[in-house]
Amino acid sequence: MADESVLNRCVGPVLDVGCGPGRLCRALLGRGAFPLGVDVAPRTVAHTVALGGMALRQSVFDRLPAEGGWKTVLLIDGNIGIGGCIQVTAPAGFLLVEVDLNDVEERCIAQFEDGHGHEGPPFPWARLGAPALHRIAEDLALGATDQWRCGQRRFLALGHKDTASGRRR
Fold this sequence. Notes:
Layout: H1 2-7, E1 14-17, H2 23-30, E2 35-39, H3 42-50, E3 55-57, E4 70-75, E5 89-99, E6 105-110, E7 123-128, H4 130-139, E8 142-150, E9 153-160, H5 161-164
Parallel strand pairs: 1-2, 1-4, 2-3, 4-5
Antiparallel strand pairs: 5-9, 6-7, 8-9
C-alpha cells in the first residue's frame, strides 16, 4: 500500500537511489515508466537486473546518466540519508522522499564496507523527520509539493522552489 502511494506519484524517467533489490524499479517497468536503480551493493544490483529491472552499481556521488533530466528521484526505505540528489532532477523534476515518523534530525559521516572488509570513501548521512526535512529543503531552495502518510510510513515530495509553488502531486 505504501509503495503504491509512491509509485502513483512517479513521473518517468525515474531514478531510484539506493534501489536495493529493485522492487520499485520492477514495479515502475510494469507501469511503462523508465526507471533506473543505483546502488553500491553488487548483490542487490545483480538481483534487480536478474529480475528484469535496470540498475547500475555505482555511488550516487559519482556522475550519473542523464543528470539534470530525471523527472522523479526516489529516496525511499531510509535512503534520505544519501541526500544530495536534487541536482540530478530535471528543472521541473522532484524528489519523493521517505522520512522518519519522528521529529528527528541526525547527521553523521558513514562509510560502506563490502563483505571482504574493503571500505569505501566516507560520506555524509542523515536521518530526518518531516519538520527537519522542511527546514533543510528551505535552505536548498526546495519546496514541498505533497506530503502523505501510509500506515507507519511518511513521505514528502520536494521540487525546486521556482517550480514547486502552487503545484501538488
